[in-house]
User: What shape does this take?
Amino acid sequence: FVDATNVYVDLSDGITKYALGNANNKNLLEQFFFTVQNQENLNYYELSNNQVQKYEGTQALSYFISNGHKDDNGKLKMGAPIDKAFNDIASKNELGIVITDGELYDSVAKEVSMNPWASDAFKSWFSSGGKLNILYTDFTEKNSGKRYNKHMYLIIFIPNGYDGNLVESLTTDFNDNNITFNSMKFNTDVSQLHTREYPDSQTPGTLT
Assistant: This one.
């Protein structure tokens, strides 16, 4: 385990225009940046226009929670390469966090990718003993006259050997500030699972 925290922020319009147009989501993201700033060796990365770019500024909170990030042509940024962020995190044994709506835009097909693009990264991460915590909120996106119910995710990759409490701190801070969110967690550690002992091999699996 390397004591470093890498935060990757999706700056596509799904986040900057729609997700952050919701007050609860904006409050959550603001509190996230307040809480995470206490982490050691903290690095921020922007995901947009199919590129992963390290943020070198000193005002991460105000930069990343701004609504409607635009490119040099004045158009809303798109194409957050969240697959590259996942692969980058999976190649290290460091704390990694991806803030995204979970949609990988295929710039060739010009639509959201339907391929299982995260499977290799997850396989690598879990095989190394890593865990995954996901905190998420809801938002609505309007597109071509239709409304779509979507989620903003904080996907937290917990490396093997990590002994910190970032997830607990985030959960406490969100609750203390009346921020609405849901959570899920995944890992392959079976050491805490209950083992049921049966008297013999003939005993049915369901006992009354």
Observations:
- The beta strands are 5-10, 42-48, 51-54, 95-100, 105-106, 111-112, 131-143, 146-158, 182-186.
